[in-house]
Amino acid sequence: MNVRRRLLVSVKRAIIPAIFAAAGFLLLKLPMMKWEPATPVFVNSATALETASAGPLPEDHLNEVHTIHLKPGQEMTTLFQEAGVVAPDFSPALHALSKAVDLRRIRSNDLFILYRSRQGKLRRLEYDRGGTQAKIVLESKGGEFQSFLEPKQIEHVLRKMEGSVSSSLYESMAAAGGDAGLIVSFADLFAWDFDFFTDTRDGDRFDMLVEEVWVDGRRVGFGHILAGRYWPVGREAPLDAYLHVWNPDESSYYTHDGRSVRKFFLKSPLNYRRISSTFTTRRFHPIFKTYRPHLGVDYAAPMGTPVVALGSGQVKMAGWKNGFGRTVQIRHNATYLTQYAHFSAIAKGIRPGVHVSQGEVIGYVGQSGHATGPHLDFRLQENGNWVNPLGLKRGESAPLPNSERPAFAATVTRWKGLLDDLQAGGTIHLDANGNLPAPATAAARLDTPPTS
To answer: CA end-to-end span of the chain, whole Å?
Structure first.
């Protein structure tokens, strides 16, 4: 019995390697075949629904999908060629499209999605103008192209953003998910009370509730900031601002106790919005503020940095002024006059007698006159005497009327509750009118933060 078992094991050990060797030899003799990925073929969902009950789709009903961004200077005919559409469809498709949109207004980078048969016949074209605008669609029906508008799925989401400052407000808020427009809008809320260039410190904290607009599952931008708070280091109570809507066309921001965030004078002549829009393509050099015994404030800033009017008023002087170089003086009222000196250039249209608005660019940082480096020499005159600008009482705008205070108090309670209850990145879906679902609290509906 043991002899028979040993014989069987020996036979297996001899035969199995021989089988694998023979198989390997045969594989080497077979012709080599090159593997290539199959061309993806997509099926138009509308066509699929129409023909699902009839069994497999005919070959000429299978659609290939081509997503193309129009290039600068590219003509529509070359776009069709790029998608593999047959030439006889060019003219009829363009004629139908021209009835829905002025072809001369089609911009470079506009998105086109073309569905064509495997033989090159154009079945459907979608023209996406971006944002929330409905798509313009062409479809081939009965041998002719017909155009129509196809609405997009639009969602409004309320998101909480928060963070602490490290290096700069811009970088810290971008890390929290904000874009350039949102960051300067947040800085604008506190431009009358805080200088984000010279007073920002690492460890400052911020949070806000902001509207987001989502289209077909993708975030396309931010809407209004509904509430914002900023805690400078060492300050227990934050700067705050809450949006109050007077009517569909008018709204304003107020502090929690109903005081307008707007003041007669801005905190600084170097405006965060103006400067951020100028230096978006490179890292911005820090701005330093120095109070000097001459009762002026020097802002060391890069050459060409925009300078804005601290408040509305009439230009008293614009030109060369001895050691001050290129200088602008603005008379704001019978009490106050501001002076801005050492400009590299005075802004276009700024001349004596011209009225300027608060925040309007009046010139650009330079080193004209007696200056050893690029900087702004800013001075303030009160009742004919030069005074320390850092002690300026900026004056408040009209507070919220008493008739509006009950509604505003309810708004503040709602937004403060959400700011305190929502986690960073937390969201609430708004209804079709952009309103909170009932009950209007954080418990109403907390969603997982979507990814952009």
So the answer is: 74
Q: What is the pTM of this model?
A: 0.70
Q: Which domains does the chain have, with CATH numbers?
A: 45-150 (3.10.450.350), 153-263+396-452 (3.10.450.350), 268-394 (2.70.70.10)
Contacts of residue 246, defined as CB under 8 A and 6 or more positions apart, other chains included, come to: 252, 404
Say how far residue 291 (Cα) sits from the centre of its chain: 36
77-81, 262-266, 337-341: range with lowest mean pLDDT: 77-81
- d(CA 412, CA 426) in angstroms, rounded, equals 19
- d(Cα 327, Cα 345) in Å, to the nearest integer? 9
List the beta strands (DSSP E) in 186-305.
205-215, 218-231, 239-247, 250-254, 288-292, 296-300
Task: Name the phi and psi angles at 415, rounded to 5.
Answer: -70, -40
3-state SS class at 200:
coil
Reduce the DSSP state of residue 404 to 3 states and report it: helix
Mean pLDDT taken over the chain = 80
